[in-house]
Amino acid sequence: MREQASRVRPTDPALAVEDVACRFGRVLALDGVSLEVRPGEVMALLGDSGCGKSTLLRIVAGLERPTRGRVLLDGHLVAGPGVAVPPEARGVGLMFQDYALFPHLTVAENIRFGLAGRPPAAREAADSLLDQVGLSARADSYPQTLSGGEQQRVALVRALAPGPRLLLLDEPFSNLDRRMRDRVREDTVALLRRTGTTALLVTHDPEEALAVASRIALMRRGRLVQVGTGEALYRRPASLFAARFLADAVEIPARVASGRAETPLGPVAAPGFAEGAAVRVCLRPEAVGVGPRGRGRDAQVLRRVFVGSATLLLLRVPGLAQPLRARISGTESCGPGDAVGLTLLEQAVLVLAEEDEGSSLEELQTEARPAARRSSH
């Protein structure tokens, strides 16, 4: 595999997944997935439990075989009709959420476990990585004496030490508390970028995907829904499902008339929709401007919530069945019971095609659970 890697063309993606399907008995875990990861890129596979993201990761690693399709690493076929390169010959690093450190080995021994037969320079590189994550002083410690964040960093260094062509991470931060998770996540991304490592990260957390990945591949029911930068998925979701997954919003059912959709807060542009089309106008907090009463549509403040960098207002709006949320700077003095005026910031309003009831996240999660148990994601 290393010999093959030396003949990689500059145009080859680090990973190419072509029309991959995977079936476990009657369960279709993956259905026609095609995806490319560029060299040096950190990509996130995002989706609910049971959507197929971990199954795809295991197929790329060689731990599962696809029912259909091909997988190429640096332009070389590793899985496909008649081809099944074993995991140890793929040059792929793996990191799981339980870290899988050997309790009877020290930190240094855990990291060097996969370096048997490698030249001394490989061990020196591993020691350098340990120093980069600030754990060189713990080289002789055992895993059970380390904090969760330290164990995570040891697992990362162990996965990077052999110099994998691709690093696969399956929910690697899920066992950490929020404060530790944010810090370790930032350190991990910095190390991946510093070493130029291509990585594919599985996560169910949209915030994590947005923070970590240069691009996100959103999955649903074994298929890819949308692939793009985090900003593109957030600001220009391709579907109502994608919009719901990336962030909460108040949804207003509407019909398109003369290129616009009418809402209790006024009409909004709905380009590209046929006359009479059923749509959902999605209002996230940043899409609503709050001002004095009489400026825009009238509303009443139900609740004021301080969240640190901003303040959220929960608002009752005539004609809306559910309260609307708006984000303000925190300097405004309005509070519960006060009357305010609302305007829409059209550049932040999403108008998306109506989907059937089965597209709601709650129902998708209910559908996904049996599949998740059978297919381990």
Outline of this structure?
With 377 residues, the chain is of the alpha+beta class. 26% of the residues lie in helices and 33% in strands.
List keywords for this structure.
single chain, 377 residues, alpha+beta, Rossmann fold, OB fold (Dihydrolipoamide Acetyltransferase, E2P), 2 domains, five-stranded antiparallel beta sheet, 33% strand, globular, disordered N terminus
Question: How is the secondary structure organized here?
Answer:
Layout: H1 2-5, E1 15-24, E2 27-37, E3 42-46, H2 53-61, E4 68-73, E5 76-80, E6 83-84, E7 92-96, H3 107-112, H4 120-132, H5 148-160, E8 166-170, H6 178-195, E9 199-203, H7 206-212, E10 215-220, E11 223-228, H8 230-235, H9 240-246, E12 250-257, E13 260-263, E14 266-269, E15 278-283, E16 288-292, E17 297-306, E18 311-316, E19 324-328, E20 339-344, E21 350-353, H10 361-375
Describe this structure in words.
It is built from ten helices and 21 strands. The protein has 377 residues and is an alpha+beta fold. It has two domains: 2-235, 3-Layer(aba) Sandwich (Rossmann fold), CATH 3.40.50.300; 240-354, OB fold (Dihydrolipoamide Acetyltransferase, E2P) (Beta Barrel). The strands form four sheets. It has a six-stranded mixed beta sheet with strand order 7-8-9-3-10-11, sandwiched between helices. The longest helix is centred in the middle third of the chain and has 18 residues, at 178-195. The chain is globular and about 75 Å long.
